[in-house]
Predict the structure.
Amino acid sequence: MIDEAGLPEDAPLAAVWRGPLVESIHRGRLAVCDPKGNLLEAVGDTEAYIYPRSAFKPFQALPLVLSGAADEFGLTDEELAVACASHNAEEPHLDAVRSILRKSSLTEGDLQSGAHLPLYESEADELIRSGEVPRPIHGNCSGKHAGMLAVCVHEGYATASYRDPGHPLQRYILGLIAEICGLREDEVIVAGDNCGVPAFAVPLQSFATGLARTTTGAELPDELARAALRIRDAMREHPYLVAGTGRLDTELMGSTGLLVKGGAEAVLAAGSQEGWGLVLKISDGTHRAVRPVALAVLGSRGVDVPEVNSSVRGLHGETVGEIGPLFQASDTA
Amino acid sequence: MIDEAGLPEDAPLAAVWRGPLVESIHRGRLAVCDPKGNLLEAVGDTEAYIYPRSAFKPFQALPLVLSGAADEFGLTDEELAVACASHNAEEPHLDAVRSILRKSSLTEGDLQSGAHLPLYESEADELIRSGEVPRPIHGNCSGKHAGMLAVCVHEGYATASYRDPGHPLQRYILGLIAEICGLREDEVIVAGDNCGVPAFAVPLQSFATGLARTTTGAELPDELARAALRIRDAMREHPYLVAGTGRLDTELMGSTGLLVKGGAEAVLAAGSQEGWGLVLKISDGTHRAVRPVALAVLGSRGVDVPEVNSSVRGLHGETVGEIGPLFQASDTA
């Protein structure tokens, strides 16, 4: 009745319990790879493609360093971190984005990141109370867009068309992603991201391999390795600027020292200097399942992680259920 | 590695496409049953339990009619509809809830439905702008709670403890659910709902059978059948009061004449006067998958439904993907 051909194999990874029963189930796929592309852990079909979405932002920010734009404009590590961010639109995020624009002789009007309410609820409420309409700078991707624009200014590329898949900057990013992930350019699939720039898709394990490379510098040409480590260090030193208050990326980067970046539709990328990259995709795209699954896998790799299970609370503050992994992470090898 | 024992069998039912690839997948289970309990269509393990959550509200409202409370207090069909609602907290919803309370000599202070921002975004924004804090009446379940309280007043039950699983009203509801679904009382599992009243779980196909019964009156004792049809008609005549602007239940009830009620964690119940009840549970609890799957199944049963697939739009208004069923509904029998 249902054609499962073409759907990648996955496995149940997390459950939401209510009372004595499982109420909902989240399936997913994951891979842990080393920089040579060896698969250290795998769940499901890891050769099948994923859209890393915002988890690709650290790769998309590489031209900022590689082109020399970051040096020409004197960008700080804080500004490099926000260029890799899916930020909360808290004031320090907006300040860092504005600073990239100012240093590149641009303004908020040049941003084409698309407007949405701040991800951080109290900032969103504040904006609603003020009667202001969300602007592109409030979009969680505005740092990425400011960074892309800075490269265009530095390189003399057109700024108005920077979102086009055929723009030289987007072609440059596609080439970098292919190189880092060990793919031919025609093996990288191009679609559209919600913020209007290309969304690239690659095999899940190719991304995990690329992540291991960019987190260690291994298996990359010297200049690319140096740029990757500069981005990595900027993010790890400023985890708050990469996401913000209450966000998993910020919490995990701060507490573990890993490079951590999430993406829409429940993607998480976590890279270790010890020489591995973990990529997780919850098949149904539900964010709530990312945390318990990621923590369980990281814990099994010897990373010191917080409590894996968390309570589901009702409107009266009482515990009505629990969310946690179904996954015995130590058995994944 | 992963113990799938104890997890009910399900199947992929909907996909979210981005560009040429499936980005996310939603699995689920469903049953269509007639009032005698015959399984007319099935996907996955339909004997496994589900928590119908708010999809049980029409059953939870039956005591309002059966006890005589609705008649004593002169409740209108609009008020019966809001007693079955997961409402948007638009003004007509709040007015109807207030009217039930007033007719039962109660006030907003008696509601223990738990406070959350109105489900309808513009009402939520309005409340934020006004500086008001959400009150229990804004909770989507406040009509159900007002109805429960009205029964307590009519029956002389304690109103302060109406949420307790051992309260006579909650025991009464448990007994009704068992009777309608053809179960023993000890086969109904009791947990806690987010609004603080019991959340009951039953086998998916037992709920579909019960829904077929309450939508037709068939296979029920006369008094219960009459009460069920009165609730059914109140809901179908006032679909706006059961949910509100932009909501699937309201749209589908209005356009199809079916009895439609959704529940949290992606449950949908749709009952037809022609003698069947459809219950759908998206395994991962994601609401966005309910609509395409429900429409595909209903369409295959000859119901005139709107366009099944819908676009996923980016922040610039462009189409970046699509959500639709994977499921060839006509093949489910």
The two ends of chain B are 34 Å apart (CA to CA). The longest helix of chain B spans residues 222-237. The longest strand of chain B covers residues 21-33. Chain B touches chain A through 64 residues (CB under 8 Å).
